[in-house]
Amino acid sequence: MFFRKLNNQELWDKINQLRTTIRTTEDFKKRVCWQCGKELNIYDFLSDNIEYSAAQIFKLWQSPLLEFHCCDCFKLLKKNKLQAIADQQKTRECNYCNNEIDIYRYAKINNYLKIHELKAVWLNPKIEVFCNSICRKRFNKELSDSSIFLK
User: Fold this and answer.
1) Per-domain boundaries in the chain
2) 3-class SS of residue 91
3) Which of 5, 34, 96, 125 has the smallest CB count inside 10 Å?
4) For the segment 105-129, what is each residue's pLDDT rounded down to a tens digit?
């Protein structure tokens, strides 16, 4: 599925690798948000894209072909993309308690999902969605308890 486990040691290792690379680079690129002009920080970029290595992050950052958003502008962009998903399907039912949940609440609960992952989960009726972590845990517990009796 799309769940990420954050390993703090791995993140710190990537930060240290990135620092070393930046110190040894004479033409390190300063970045600003292409929409509002706010100064950007490569370490924020790394923490938002943890699945990439430090070398990949540096290469993306230095690329003359790419431009980046600040967090505020990106949130606005994400809001517009969430609206597009809501236009297709605004609500679903929690697989445990059957309460209705909308895409905005689900996105807030699962804020680690990138927008394409969120869309893939939300629009696929075969994938369970839950209104909160308690319902997810209860659902999984009941599922595991029932599988014990099947053996």
Assistant:
1) 8-62, 72-150
2) strand
3) 5
4) 999 898 888 889 999 999 999 999 9
